[in-house]
Design goal:
3-stranded mixed beta sheet, 3 strands
Length: 360
């Protein structure tokens, strides 16, 4: 009888341990995040430059063998699993408490896995500190000078990009990363990168999303409906995330530098015209805004107007607002203080780049 009692107790203990494992792991990850937030240099040395490159190499190797998005399939399966569980609850095949426990365990595991395979990069030092840049003082004259330069380069490098160029563009972006990674403090090669088309491209375009990085499988995704003029810049932006750059502004800066420092006019045009839009947004408050606007060639302006109408026609305003709110909360939760406004902060980073590389 005593032996049976011990077996029962051992079985119960094992069950409790297995049930609590996801929560224990999540608790450890949560505490480590609090430590990481206060110790950026340690994160940079041991995780971003130490552990993460091996994680990226491992997961990208296997995901690149698959032509379709594992990230999209994964989330579709998760949603179907949740729905199936709910059906079983309705038909009283499983208890509601058991179902909720499994959902919470799943969330705890996904939370932990996200930070382990990529998310700790949110807590590394900012790019200026990583590279050792000097931060220039806010100066309207410098802003005007760089805006003028970007307009001139956008006009000069105007080019009509075709979707048939995508394979070549991917090779050119990759080559530019190989050459320019030291300047940007990027660990190259950091695995391999195979751009994949979103399985739910129409839905994501309605949400206003034209590309994203799937950290669980180290995958880069681009929307099927993305305009060719935006393809090089968005591709370079998503590759920046694969290199462990979490800030949207930093990813925009990296995409800009990678594109304009390429010898290919398609990348140059995509890089300059993408960043020009951010500069024009800031310049719209200036009295001389129309003067700058009038300096832009008609062909470039036609591209801008076409882009606006094209994406507005695909976007669902209600869904887009919802996605923006969710993304804003997500970014702020990961210590990106400005939330979705972080994208616009690329202007100050581009100014820093020009200042530190003596390009103006």
């Amino acid at each position: 009888m005593l032996k049976i009692g011990k077996k029962i107790r051992v079985g119960s203990t094992r069950k409790i341990i297995m049930l609590s494992l996801p929560f224990s792991l999540a608790a450890i990850v949560f505490l480590s995040i609090q430590f990481a937030f206060r110790n950026a240099e340690i994160v940079e040395h041991y995780y971003s430059k130490g552990i993460y490159p091996f994680i990226a190499k491992f997961f990208s190797f296997f995901s690149n063998l698959i032509p379709f998005s594992l990230w999209d399939v994964f989330w579709v399966l998760i949603i179907l699993l949740i729905i199936c569980g709910l059906i079983l609850v309705v038909f009283k095949k499983v208890r509601f408490g058991w179902y909720i426990l499994r959902i919470v365990q799943l969330v705890a595991l996904l939370y932990s896995f996200f930070y382990i395979v990529w998310g700790y990069n949110y807590f590394r030092p900012k790019i200026e500190k990583r590279i050792g840049w000097e931060s220039p003082k806010a100066d309207e004259m410098i802003f005007r000078s760089i805006l003028d330069s970007i307009i001139i380069q956008t006009n000069y490098n105007y080019f009509s990009i075709l979707s048939s160029d995508y394979s070549k563009i991917d090779s050119l972006v990759e080559e530019s990363y190989r050459i320019n990674s030291p300047e940007l403090g990027i660990n190259y090669p950091n695995g391999t990168r195979r751009p994949k088309t979103m399985l739910l491209s129409s839905l994501f375009m309605k949400l206003g999303v034209n590309g994203y990085f799937g950290p669980f499988f180290n995958e880069i995704h681009l929307d099927y409906y993305l305009l060719p003029m935006d393809y090089p810049f968005v591709l370079a932006h998503e590759k920046a995330h694969q290199f462990g750059i979490t800030s949207e502004a930093e990813a925009n800066l990296v995409a800009f530098v990678i594109c304009i420092k390429s010898g290919d006019v398609r990348l140059k045009y995509s890089g300059y015209q993408s960043v020009l839009l951010y500069f024009l947004k800031d310049a719209s408050k200036m009295a001389e805004y129309k003067e700058y606007f009038n300096k832009i060639d008609k062909k470039v302006l036609q591209d801008f107007r076409f882009r606006q109408k094209y994406y507005q026609g695909l976007e669902n305003k209600s869904l887009s607002k919802m996605q923006t709110a969710v993304n804003n909360a997500y970014l702020k939760a990961n210590k990106i203080e400005k939330g979705v406004k972080n994208y616009d902060q690329v202007v100050s980073l581009v100014i820093s780049w020009y200042h530190n590389s003596n390009n103006y």
